Amino acid sequence: MLKKEWPKHSILAIAIIATWLKTYITYKTSFSITIDNALQEFILFINPLSMLLFAYGISLFFKSEKAKNRYIVAVAIISSIILYSNVAFYRFFSDFITLPILFQTDNFGDLGSSASESIFLTDIVYFTDVILILLAIKFVRVMPSSELSVAAQRKAYFIISAAVLFFNLGLSEAERPQLLTRSFDREMLVKNIGMYNYHLYDIYIQSKSQAQRTLANGSELVEVNNYIRANQPEPSDEMFGAAEGRNLIVVTLESLQSFTINGEMNGKPITPFLSELTKDEDTIYFPNFYHQTGLGKTSDSEFILENSLYPLSGGAVFFTHSGNTFNSMAESLGNSGYHTAVQHANTKSFWNRDMMYESLNIDQFLDVESYTIGEGDAVNWGMKDIPFMEQSVEQMTEMPQPFYTRLLTLTNHHPFYLDEEDKMIEEFNSSSGTLNRYFQTARYLDESIEVMFDELKEKGLYENSIIVMYGDHYGISENHNEAMAQYLGKEITPFESAQLQKVPFFVHIPGYGEGQINKEIGGQIDIRPTIMHLMGLETEKDIQFGGDLFSEEHEEFVVFRDGRFITDQHVFAGNVCYDIETGIETDMASCEPYIEPALTELEYSESIINGDLLRFYDENNGQLILSEEELEKLEKERQQQQELELEIQN
Ligand code: GP9
Ligand code: MN
């Protein structure tokens, strides 16, 4: 027993400081959280504090010293378990835990085995604060409590706690505007509001979306349906059915941005094959085409392509809503007699694909198990694209025809590593190794596409197929702006950043003969209607936000997942309106009329996903599936509306 008597709330103070420091040290040692400046470091340092003050502070309401101490130990243990679970999870998945992941553990096929490999005896250090607190309780003698002004002290304590919370939130808001309302990634949240607050926030967001599904009913779809019916462009007569009955091969060009197409690096073409293809008589190439993905990256692009819905603002819809009802392109083609498949040499549970593909009604998923990856066939994330293409085309020869298959490439993926023998051009010479290597992996991806074309021809599949290729999302993030500016020879403004979201989109129809560069401004949301119409399938009854890029009526309005948008004349980015031709800032009034519609589209799409609303829709007849009461209610509303109109007329 220590001789000296310590102030009354010593145990509480020791607990707060111990857990606080432990959390910060864990941030620095067990996660790779990117810190760009001193303010970010400061926010990271203080962010555990607000929650700890509150959680430990509850102990002030306990009368007996014993109960108080027990409670403090309980808080220390629970917070340690939360932190440590994240550490173990991060070792394997480089991500923080989010609720849906906990409920979908069976999707993480490898979770069980990887968990045991991610846990070590020495991890006991993550419980250092618990041990310290137990020691303090045993050895520190605190002054007996005086009943004096306990309530007033408590009040002061919680006012200070609240002040700390608001100080933290204020700094985060300054550092990362709209952190809690706009798109985000988990690292950014942990970095700004801290691990403990992040979990509370996550619980809030997830239970909100669960509640939305439970409370949702078919009548919510009425407004969305009306909006969509009013905005669907008619298919183009000329292109409708241009590829009817053919096999459909869709290739996802991993991380490929449009600047690589017809682009050079140190005098060498980056994508010689694809660049040549833009001039081909059987190819329609869209240079003004944008990705619209969010946190779900590749999986978001797949989601948009299959459904022509926007992905979610928070989290990957492949993870959060894989149980929903969808009306995918695969389902429609399947109903028209197509065999549908995805070919991707990665583990099937990545991005929860195995689950989601069931919901999208994809017949066959050829995952890593279906490929033979020999010596030297893998690099970076897995199987190299060239052997992948060779084996994929071989697999196609086994598929029942006509088939619709999607090939997901992998080599041109961050961090863009490549074996010496596969480097066909030099590295770039900027300060960013990422950008420097990107040119080489993009060049390799290009080569693999040529291999695919050759193989298709050799296997006799080429003539009777249509090949569609699109870039899934950016490869070079804004972290590399300086290097990118060096390459492009211009400063990367928010306008340029938005323009860098352009990804290639190719439609290649062997024998078509009228190939062209089509300057129509469009986005991934338009892929579904465009392809479906080429395949001769009507989409007039489908719930989809995109439009056929070949249609005369197609509207040039591309909404990014984060609310930025492009029109035929303007780019709205960073809350500034730019002229699309010059990139010069213009009057906000020019963008103003589009701000609401952009958000409306995103919100409608979000409500469909969160409410799982397509379960209330029959795409065969375009009818809503409504209950008796909903029908009655709608009928009443309609009558009231009619009466109102009559009154106005009189
Ligand atoms: C992984 C591949 C890459 O299977 O789709 O995913 P990304 O990181 O680009 O979303
Ligand atoms: Mn990707």
TrEMBL record:
Pfam families recorded: Sulfatase
Coiled-coil portions: 617-647
Lipid bilayer topology: Multi-pass membrane protein
Transmembrane feature ranges: 12-30, 42-62, 71-93, 124-144, 156-172
Protein EC: 2.7.8.-
Primary location recorded for the protein, binned into one broad class: membrane
Start and end residues of each Sulfatase N-terminal domain: 246-536
Alphabetical list of SUPFAM superfamilies matching this protein: Alkaline phosphatase-like
InterPro entries found in the cross-reference section: Alkaline_phosphatase_core_sf, LtaS-like, OpgB/LTA_synthase_biosynth, Sulfatase_N
Keywords: Cell membrane, Coiled coil, Membrane, Transferase, Transmembrane, Transmembrane helix
Record-level Gene Ontology MF annotations: transferase activity
Subcellular compartments: Cell membrane
PANTHER family from the UniProt entry: LIPOTEICHOIC ACID SYNTHASE, LIPOTEICHOIC ACID SYNTHASE-LIKE YQGS
Family in the record: Belongs to the LTA synthase family.
Protein name, entry field: LTA synthase family protein
Source species of the chain: Planococcus shenhongbingii
